[in-house]
Amino acid sequence: MPKVTDEYRNARRGEIIEVAISQFAEHGYARTSIADLVTASGLSAGAIYGNFPGGKQELFVAAASRILKSRRDELAAGAGADRPLSPGEVMATLIRGIRAENVGSVLPQLWGEASIDAEIRTLVSAVFRDLRQTVADRLTEWAAAHPDRTGADPSAWGARMAPVVLSAAPGFVLQRAMLDDFDEVAYIDALPDIFVH
Amino acid sequence: MPKVTDEYRNARRGEIIEVAISQFAEHGYARTSIADLVTASGLSAGAIYGNFPGGKQELFVAAASRILKSRRDELAAGAGADRPLSPGEVMATLIRGIRAENVGSVLPQLWGEASIDAEIRTLVSAVFRDLRQTVADRLTEWAAAHPDRTGADPSAWGARMAPVVLSAAPGFVLQRAMLDDFDEVAYIDALPDIFVH
DNA sequence: GTCTATAATAGGATAGAC
DNA sequence: GTCTATCCTATTATAGAC
After folding, report:
1. How far is the CA of B67 from the C1' of C9 (A)?
2. Is A79 helix (H, G, I), strand (E, B) or coil?
3. Burial of A193 (C-beta count, 10 Å sphere; 0-12/13-18/19+)
4. pLDDT of the residue at B75
5. What's the pLDDT tens digit per position in B27-37?
6. CA dihedral in degrees (B57, B58, B59, B60; nearest 10)?
7. N or C end of chain B: which has fewer CB within 10 A?
């Protein structure tokens, strides 16, 4: 049974994905050719197609999955504080994580592709749903602790507010990518003050 | 003097841009070939290159400018209410405008391109700055009317909060593009409640 | 599984007639 | 200014040796 083979295969795939992400981040998905990946990886076209028969698109999907997966993991890890976090604090935590993992400009490109390509959109939307649900859960906890500010139904309040609160994440990523004078730290610091608290 | 010629030229350019936007929205920028534009417009390759010597990229820039311009115009129009709007109300107004003009999935694609292409980023970032400034101005007005909730320096408060508040716009556009179950109206309704008010 | 070399094609862009 | 026809480059993907 090919146990070693599987490990090797996964390692090689991971290696290629790593290179792909860095190239996509630097030159963009559309402008990165297979030849670029060959050069940057030191491998050959044959090696790449051997591991990713679907070619460039499959590679992009794989790269996207990898990036998005770490987002999910981090989210799961952040759960279970003792005191319910306010909406702004929830987002500050999430965005600090996004900031730490420097995927550069891959996320906006990913969103752009997702709005065209159904397969990529499926990936992205799954993550959006996850994030939204997680945010909603945190907001619900906080709402339960602050009925005076949120009304009688914490769960409904959380579900209603989650999409807006979640928007702070793409807003951060985009403004960081677009604006030279964007102040990342100030953005994160402002979060707890601008949402209800 | 070629007065008629200029009008004609602009009309033709506008016609082509119109077709380009609709094609980009439907099939994506990368996947739209000049041949597609030829087919969809009923014109010829020569006509397109005659009006847009820079080819596909110039066409995308022109399309982006057109879309972004209407965003700016609308912003300017919305100014000058008598009572200062709360942060959430400011964004509700802005997002209703975005929602009305159905540019579909072109904005996420535009952001994706902007994170790669310097010329497009210049366009987009100018609009982001405009929007941010406008939002900051409105927030400052509101802060001046509510020093108890915002502190002693309304202008500083407005500038600090604007980037986060502004994030609701890309958040809306993205979630609408990605999520089948996204509730646009609920999003807009939630805005005035989730930001400080 | 990976390499080298090459086939196959798509797509952007242009030349020249009208 | 616009059309038809065509060129040419860039890039994907594969075939066959090791």
Report:
1. 34
2. coil
3. middle
4. 67
5. 999 999 999 99
6. 50
7. N
Q: How far is CA A134 from CA A131, A141, A158, in A?
A: 5, 11, 10
In the predicted model, is pLDDT for residue A73 greater than 80? no
Q: Which residues of A touch B191 (CB under 8 A)?
A: 164
Does A121 contact B178 at a Cβ distance shorter than 8 Å? yes
Residue at the smallest CA–C1' distance to nucleotide C2: A47
Say which amino acid occupies B103.
Answer: V
What is the rounded CA–CA span in Å between residue A9 and residue A138?
A: 39
Measured from the CB, is B9 under 7 Å from any atom of strand D?
Answer: yes
All residue ranges of chain B with pLDDT < 50 are none
Q: What pLDDT score was predicted for residue A80?
A: 65
Convert the pLDDT of each residue in A20-68 to its tens digit: 999 999 999 999 999 999 999 999 999 999 999 999 999 999 999 999 8
